[in-house]
Design goal:
The structure holds 2 protein chains of 2 kinds. Chain A is an alpha+beta fold. Chain A has 7 helices and 10 strands. In chain B, strands 1, 4, 5, 6, 7, 8, 9 and 10 form an 8-stranded antiparallel beta sheet that branches. In chain B, strands 11-2-3-12-13 form a 5-stranded antiparallel beta sheet, with helices on one face. Classes of the chains: A alpha+beta, B alpha+beta.
Chain lengths: 299, 266
Amino acid sequence: MNMPVYVSPEQLMKDRADFARKGVARGRPVIVMQYDNGILFVTENVSRSLHKIAEIYDRIGFAAVGKYNEFEKLRVTGVRYADMRGYAYDRSDVAARGLANAYAQMLGSSFTTDPKPMEVEIVVAEVGATPDEDQIYRLSYDGSVADEPGFVVMGANAEFLRDHLSNSFDPAATLDNALITAIETLRIGAPESHATGSHATEPHTPAAQGKSTGTQQEADTHEILPRNLEIAVLERDRVRRKFRRLVGAALPSVVTDALSGHHGAPEPDNAPEVAVSSAEPGPDQPAAEGNVEADSGSP
Amino acid sequence: MNPEMMQAAGNGFADQVPHATTILAIIYDQGVLIAGDRRATVGLRIAHREMEKIFPADAYSALGISGSAGMGTEAARLFQLELEHYEKIEGSLLSLDGKANRLAALLKSNIGMAMRGFVVIPMFVGFDLDRGIGRIFSYDAVGGRYEEHGYHQTGSGGVHAKGSLKKLWRPNLTKQKAVEIAVEALFDAADDDAGTGGPDQMRNVYPVVATIDKDGYVRVPEADLAQITAQIVTERTEFEELARTSRGYNGLELTSPAPIVTEQGN
C-alpha cells in the first residue's frame, strides 16, 4: 500500500523555486539597459534564428533567459495580447505595464499549479517619449514583477554582472558607449570563468569607457564573436515600430572593435588555444553551444 | 417624404455611405509606385476632401482602396495587423504572393457585405524581396486576385487615368518620372470624373503618392507633388490658352465675328 509522503508547503515552494532558479542560471546572460536615445538589449546567442530578444509592439520589447520553448510561448502570447489590444483600441493604448501584469499572472499560476514551474526570467521594456517615461519590468519564474530603474541583467551570474554594470552604467550614454559597456559586462560573464566567485566584489570600472581591458583580470574575460551577439534597440525617435535589430550592415562598427580589441592580448589560462583570427572558434565555443542547448530547451 | 430620400432608400443603404475613388499603381525601374486622390463622395456630394486611400501594409508593401470607404479602411487596418502579427510571430516577412493571397482571402470573407452593396476593390503593390522587382495585384469584389503588368488603375476615375497611363507609361521609368506620371494621370482622372478630387492648391491638399523599392515604403513629400502639380497646371494653362486664342477667344468675348468659319477653313 502506498502512503503519500508529506511535504510541507514551504519545502514544496522552495524546491520549485530552486528548480526554476537553476534552469534560469544556465542561460547566457541578457542585458537590458537605457541609453540616451532608447533602450538597448544585448545577449550572447549562437543561434541567429532562435531569438532571446524580440519585438512585442511599437514601443515594447521582450528579452528572456531560460528554456526556449517556455519563453517562446510567453513571447507569442505577448505579441497576441498586444496586437489584439492595438486593433481593438488604438496603437497608443498598448502599454508594457498591462503586458507585464498579464505575464505575471501566467508565470504565477504556472509556478503554483503546473507540474513544473517555468524555467524562465523575462524582461518587458517600453521606451517612452522621454527617458523618464522608459519602463523596464523584470519578471521571475514565480510571477514576481520588479520595476527596474535603468538596467537589468538576467541569466548566469546575474548578481555579479549586475554589480559590475551598476558601476559603469550611464543612462545618458550614447548607443556606442552603451554597447561597449554591455559587451564588456558580457565578456566577464562567462559562467565557467566565474566559478570561484572570489573576485565577485572587485570593481571593474575601466571597462566602462571602452578602454583597453589590459587592467582587467584577463582570466575573467572570454571571447565573444560578433556573429554570436544578439543586439536590438528600442529607438525613441523612430516612428511607429521602434524595435530594431542591429544585425549585418546595421551592426555598429564599435561592436567588432570592442570585441576584436582584445584579441591581441593573450589570456593566461587558455593562451595556447587562443586563435588570433576572430573568425575561428575560440576555446569557449563548445561551452557556448552547450549553453544554447540549455536555452533551446533540450534536456 | 423627400423624393431624393426615397430614391436613395430604393438604391440601398450602401449608396448613402462615402465612397473612395481613383487609385493607380505604376511599376518603375527600381520598384513600384501607388497613388490615390483625396476625395470621398456620397452620390454627388463630396463627403471628405482629405481622405487617404493609400496605406502602407508593411515595410515593403502597400494597398489602396476604392469603393466603400469605411469598409476599405477597416480592411486595410485588419490587413496591416495580419502582416505585422505574422512577421512578429514567425520572425520573418510573408512573401509578396503570400500577402497578396491573404488580402484575397480577406475580401472573400467580406462577400456578404459586398452583395449588400458595400463593395471594396483594393489594389495591392509591393516590392518582391526575393526577385528584386515591384509588382501590382488587382482584385475583384469577391476576392479574385490578378497580377498586373506595368500599371493599373481602379475606381470611378480609373477609366480616365487609364488613358493617361497608357500614353505616358514606359518600361524602366525612373522614380521621378513615375511620380510625375502618377500626378498627371490623377489630374486627368479628376478633370473628367466628378468623384475624383484633383490637386487642391487652395487647401494645399495633394494626392497621396508613395514609392516602394528596396528602401521600403516612402511617401513622396507634399512639396514635390505641389511642384509637379504647378508644372502641369502651367503647361495645361498654356495649351488651353493656345486652344482658345486659335479660335479667336480672348477670354472675354469672341474677337472674330465668325470663329467657326475660321476653324472650318483650317
